[in-house]
Amino acid sequence: MKRVLIEPHYFGSLEYYSLLAQYDSLLVEVSQHYSKQTYKNRCELLTTQGVNALTIPVHYTNRTLLKDVKIDYTQRWVKVHLGLIKAAYGKSAFFDFFFPEIEDLLKKQNTFLCDLTLDAMQLVVKNLQLKIK
């Protein structure tokens, strides 16, 4: 059995999932200190206007562990993310099939960033039909 230790990414890149597809099992590292400017709370969409970064606002301090970082729902980021996803991919094949799951995921309002990113990873792994534990 091939395993890899990874950090969770918010809707990781194609390269991220290409790497994960090479393994049977994942160990997700959530006990490291949270750091800014990473893909732990951001992703990028390719739109007609170029690359658009989506960022989840979070509450943390310099010594906060990733598993303890809380999502800030006082900002309208869920509505913004869903709107940008719809604008960028709304006319794509199978959009109507995949979008409701993404919408449900973002509207779930997980308290912790880690829970949201793990849910997003599981959603992508399921829809890519990867056999990863």
Molecular structure report:
36% of the residues lie in helices and 18% in strands. It has 4 helices and 6 strands, in the order βαβββββααα. A two-stranded parallel ribbon has the order 1-2. Strand 1, helix 1 (14-20) and strand 2 form a beta-alpha-beta unit. Helix 3 packs antiparallel against helix 4. The longest helix has 15 residues, at 113-127. The radius of gyration is 15 Å and the shape is globular. The N and C termini lie close together (11 Å).
Summarize the helices and strands and which ones pair or pack.
Layout: E1 3-6, H1 14-20, E2 25-28, E3 42-47, E4 50-55, E5 58-59, E6 70-71, H2 77-89, H3 95-107, H4 113-127
Parallel strand pairs: 1-2
Antiparallel strand pairs: 3-4, 5-6
Task: Tell me the distance between the termini.
Answer: 11 Å
* Largest sheet entry: 2 strands, parallel
Structural class: alpha+beta
Helix content: 25-40%
Low-confidence stretches: none
Strand content: 15-25%
Total DSSP E strands? 6
Name the helix and strand elements from N-terminus to C-terminus, one letter apiece.
Answer: EHEEEEEHHH
Radius of gyration: 15 Å
In DSSP terms, counting alpha (H) and pi (I) runs of 4 or more, how many helices?
Answer: 4
Strand order of the largest sheet: 1-2
The overall average pLDDT, rounded, is: 94
Shape: globular
